[in-house]
């Protein structure tokens, strides 16, 4: 077990809507896939991810550079709560929040169960694969299939 692992594996015994704020926040693996711009087919609800990210994303850490104020600075940014997980189809399939909401375990590369760099070694992180929204043209030209 590494220094970031939690021996009590709280995510296996505490429902998402009963977690403390610290527990809830620790579920984020830092992959930053939720910061990707996406297009949704309104009829089928199929999500098409792009390689375009919010300008607030720190590309090295995979974390928001202004997390406390993100929803004010970026009104479209979702403040994820258990209520949004009733139908988490819009989150990336590897997202810990989505996985737990769907009754699936955390992946082996998640920072709660693996080394902190495992998310990037697993190819789930975005390092070197994205462009900032201010540097992108039309989203249709940035569709990706690696999510």
Query: Stretches where pLDDT falls below 50 for ≥5 residues?
Result: none
Number of strands: 5
Order of helices and strands: HEEEEHHHE
Largest sheet: 3 strands, mixed
Number of domains: 1
- Give helix % range: 10-25%
Beta-strand residue percentage: 5-15%
Average pLDDT number: 86
Question: In words, what does this structure look like?
Answer:
The protein is α+β, with helices and mostly antiparallel strands and 147 residues long. It has one domain. Helix content is 14%, strand content 12%. A three-stranded mixed sheet has the order 1-2-5, with no helix packed on it. Strands 3-4 form a two-stranded antiparallel ribbon. A hairpin with a 6-residue loop joins strand 1 and strand 2. The longest helix is centred in the N-terminal third of the chain and has 6 residues. The two termini are 28 Å apart. The mean pLDDT is 86.
How would you concisely characterize the structure shown here?
The chain has 147 residues and is an alpha+beta fold.
Helices, strands, pairings?
Elements: H1 21-26, E1 36-40, E2 47-53, E3 57-58, E4 63-64, H2 70-73, H3 96-101, H4 118-121, E5 131-132
